[in-house]
Amino acid sequence: RSCAQSLLRLLGFTFWGTAAAQAFGGLLLILMFKNYRYVFQESYLSLPGWLALATALILLPTGVLAVCISVKCSRHQQGTLMYLLLLLFCLELSSATLACSYCVRTASQLESAMGYLVRQHNWNCSQDPGNSAVDVIQRKLQCCGVHNYTDWLKTSFSSWYHPACVPESCCKEKHSQCKGDLGHVEQLSEGGCLKKLESQLRFAMLYIFWCCTVLSILELLAGVSNGILMRHQPFRELRVL
Q: Where does the chain cross the membrane (predicted)?
């Protein structure tokens, strides 16, 4: 019983820390889909992030209950803790499953979405407004084209006007005089946007997946510890459940 109380107290404090980690992962995923909504057009893709935020909010009272029960056992608090642990386990299982499946599904759609944005970009070497969706993405990620800058040379619009330039959003920030001229390739961002988007997506999804996996194990330990304490102090009336 003393070991169960000590473990439950430790897990209670751990839940507060993991709540911050879950909130970070949820916000990271939500903001990523908001910043690159031109590519991630399906609104449901941010669902794992919202589930992670809900989990973080529920973890706070769960940690308080775990600490309180480790100090002074209360049948009402023990029952409430069991229900919260079950709710958290369901949320995290759903969030981890969605994050894993969306990571695989969305990665296959990124290339076609980026390719469409590049083909639809209305620009030329003498007149580049630089405020389209693909320009915003290239500036944020410091990238150029889908795979590299040569993707801009394959567009019909580019070849019709001038084949030896790319949009100014491909330029590196430190080169303020860059105009997208291919005569100065060293001034252009290295690498395409597809690889960087995939890297950010994989990091956010795997972060949520592993957070949920670790938290599920901790909650199982908390449930076992709480169960041991409930066994030493059994319920006398069923209505408190």
A: 7-30, 50-71, 83-104, 204-229
pTM: 0.78
Please say whether the beta carbons of 207 and 28 come within 8 A.
Answer: yes
SS3 (DSSP) at 124: coil
**Can you list the alpha helix ranges (DSSP code H) found in the chain?**
2-35, 47-71, 75-120, 133-141, 156-161, 193-232
Cβ atoms of 196 and 206 closer than 8 Å: no
Q: Does residue 241 lie in a domain region? A: no
120-145 per-position pLDDT tens digit: 776 666 555 566 778 888 888 888 88
Instruction: Give the length of the chain.
Output: 241
CA distance 188 to 182: 8
Q: Produce one character per residue of 58-67: b if its CB has 16 or more CB atoms within 10 Å, e if not.
A: bbeebbebbb
Total domains in the fold of the chain: 1
